[in-house]
Amino acid sequence: MTGVGSFSFMAGALEPAVAAYALRLARVFGTYRVGWFLFATFVSLALLHLVQSVAVSSAPSVAPALVSVPIILLLLVGMAHTDAFLGQRTRIERKERQLASELGSQVREKAELRAAYDRLLEQMAQVEQIGKCLEASERQYRSVFTDNPQPMWIFDLRSFRFLAANKVALRDYGFSESEFLALTAKDIRPPGDVPAFVRDSARPGLGGGSWGLTRLYRKDRTLLDVETTSLDLIFDNSPARLVLARDVTQRRLLDQQSRQVEKVEATAQLAGGIAHHFNNLITPVLGYASLLLARLHDPEIVEPLKEISAAANRVAELTRILLAFGGRTAIEDEPLDLNDLLEHLNKTLRWLIGEFIFLNTSYEPGLPSIKGDAALIRQVVVNLVLNARDAMAGRGSLLLRTTCIEVDADYARRNGEARVGEFVCLSVCDTGCGMTEEVRAHLFEPFFTTKDIGKGTGLGLATVYQIVKQHCGWTEVATEPGVGTHVRVLLPSAPGTAT
Question: With contact defined as beta carbons under 8 Å apart, do 202 and 187 qualify?
Answer without folding.
Answer: no
